[in-house]
Design goal:
The protein is an alpha/beta fold. It has one domain (32-141, 154-206): Rossmann fold, CATH 3.40.50. It has helices at 3-7, 57-68, 74-90, 104-110, 114-126, 149-156, 182-193; strands at residues 40-41, 49-50, 53-54, 96-99, 134-136, 160-162, 170-178, 198-206. Strand 7 (170-178), helix 7 (182-193) and strand 8 form a beta-alpha-beta unit. Helix 3 (74-90) packs across helix 5. The radius of gyration is 17 Å and the shape is globular.
Length: 209
């Protein structure tokens, strides 16, 4: 342990208490971890999405802090949970990593894009490239405020465009949460229309058990 760790010990993103190492031993066994094929969700335009956690309990509270309370450093911890699952389930299925972007308005308000931070942290863990391939052209109501699959799809329809080179590439698309998969599917659809060979995905958490 170096001097900085002694002076400013890392705090668990879930319980907020100091921890020794990359993962909190205190929270081990208490987190809503997905298991086996329950970690995998299939979508309309993305082949698979893997998630290490369910969006409930301490994970949902933690992700809300990550998104809305300036806890940028949480990206590194979530990446350490995401990367092993990506290696296990998606190895060889992608050659570049990108993310589901927030709108410019939302990024200015928060000061950052949490999905971008998570994607770059996962890329660092995996030793892979991370590129901005998508932009969100218009601000939309948060998906959490929209009920029903059809309405969620309509809410994000046409909201994204490709601004990078997707042609012929196999892409890992990263976001913080997946619920119905409407946002992920819309982003994947745009990437496929731009010539991507395949789109797989990873999120920190998935809704529902």
């Amino acid at each position: 342990m170096n001097l900085l760790d002694l002076l400013f010990p890392k705090k668990c993103v879930f319980c907020g208490k100091p921890m020794d190492g990359d993962k909190c031993k205190r929270c081990a066994g208490l987190l809503p971890v997905t298991e086996g094929m329950r970690s995998v969700k299939r979508g309309e335009f993305f082949s698979l999405c893997v998630s290490p956690f369910y969006y409930s309990g301490p994970v949902s509270e933690s992700i809300r802090r990550f998104k809305f309370s300036g806890r940028r450093s949480y990206a590194g911890t979530y990446a350490k949970y995401c990367a092993p699952l990506v290696r296990e389930r998606l190895e060889g299925r992608f050659d570049v990593i990108t993310w589901v972007p927030v709108s410019r308005k939302r990024a200015r308000k928060r000061g950052y894009d949490q999905a971008e931070l998570l994607a770059k942290a996962i890329a660092k863990e995996l030793g892979m490239r991370c590129e901005r391939l998508l932009v969100k052209k218009r601000d939309t109501p948060a998906q959490s405020t929209v009920t029903g699959g059809a309405r969620r799809r309509a809410n994000v329809s046409g909201a994204f465009s490709v601004n990078g080179d997707a042609a012929g590439r196999k892409i890992l698309l990263v976001d913080d949460i997946i619920t119905t998969g409407a946002t992920m599917s819309e982003c994947a659809r745009m990437l496929l229309m731009a010539g991507a060979e395949d789109v797989v995905a990873c999120t920190a958490a998935t809704a529902g058990r």
